[in-house]
Amino acid sequence: MKYAFPQDFWWGSASSAPQSEGESLSFGKSATIWDEWFRLQPERFNQQVGPQQTSDFYRCWRDDIALLKRLNHNSFRTSISWARLIPQGRGEVNPQAVAFYNQVIDEMLAQGITPFINLFHFDMPLAMQQQGGWESRAVVQAYAEFADVCFRLFGDRVKHWFTFNEPIVPVEGGYLYDFHYPNVVDFSRAATVAYHTMLAHALAVRNYRARGQDGEIGIILNLTPSYPRSANPADVQAANIADLMFNRSFLDPALRGSYPQELVALLRQHDQLPPCQAEDAALLAQGVVDLLGINYYQPRRIQCRDSLVNPDSPFMPEWFFSHYAMPGRKMNPYRGWEIYEKGIYDILTNLRENYGNPRCFISENGMGVEDERRFEQNGQIQDDYRIDFIREHLQWVHRGISEGSRCLGYHMWTFIDNWSWSNAYKNRYGFVQLDLASQQRTIKKSGEWFAATAAANGFEE
Ligand code: BG6
Fold first, then answer.
1. pTM, entire model
2. Lower Cβ count inside 10 Å, N or C end of the chain?
3. So what's the ipTM on this one?
4. What pairs with residue 300 in β-bridges?
């Protein structure tokens, strides 16, 4: 076979508790920032569809796990909802949540599907946000306690843990660019949130290891290779700063246990360093992961700024670079994102050459499509565009592996079309089409293709 993958390669997909479970204010679960934002500003959500309207995994878990099996998944990622497990964020554990997650984990294992469990997917409990969210060190401690409860309750069966999914997204969305609650735009608060998130990560990693549970713990980062517009030193420097801000701000602590000196110097120069305590460096050093999840959707095309920064304007990453649309780039016509398959290989190469070739896997890659029903024929969505997208990315992953990258698997975003934050159901990503009104699930053509590819552990062309 031309594209054969290593034995035991992880084939699967990913979702998250807040995007699939539903029952977002019942069965003992308390509100997250998403319930609260939807309550305050439903008009900010596509078609005013909020976090209650999902594919109802809370009720349909058994059938959905059967569907995972039908799609030949050997692994699947979802998350544990902090606000469901510990409704006040700290303290009492919700027995209904324990029963639910036990059933899900046991059923996955019974079906031969390895559970990959993430602990935080943008879903800060409202009770914790009201205490300052990630701006507060007390919340860092509360998160570590939540993580520890998860390890204690489920760690006998879950052997692949992740502390965070895309930790930069709540920073960007909630504190820089106004697409998550609490809709703050303030770089220094964003920097504190980012820093505290990585302290929380390191605490959870340290505590997990102290338990000696014979599993592994990692983090899932959305990496966006930053390509300069030209070899002109100003463009190269601009791309380097974008890389520092958006990739290395999380990648370096996760893989090296410390922040890049260049980033620290830049933030110090602009008086934007978050408050640190003496013991932080030693803690961060303990947060080096066993396994890195890579979410890859699109690259960043960077050029130097064409105008001088007004020094009176609020400090923002864009002080140092501009984005540009590369002429001739390939676009996803149904979502507006660039498609650059080689980016996935460049990430693997960078990890191999500059980060000691860590154990990693592709934890998300996917193609969102608006109005996907237009591609339905005889009752099935004919998403050949998605098959091409996956195949072309996998070809580059295959090449990375053949050159020595330790990439252990490929998970697609996502399994069943799911609720996606304020975009709700605007962009559909699933292997399985969801009819929201009837809750009917229908496997798309890409789901069939993926099932065959997973069964064969590769593909011909
Ligand atoms: C990923 C997130 O970055 O993008 C998911 O981990 C999200 O939670 C997905 O749903 C798709 O986002 P969007 O904005 O295209 O719906």
1. 0.98
2. C
3. 0.97
4. 226
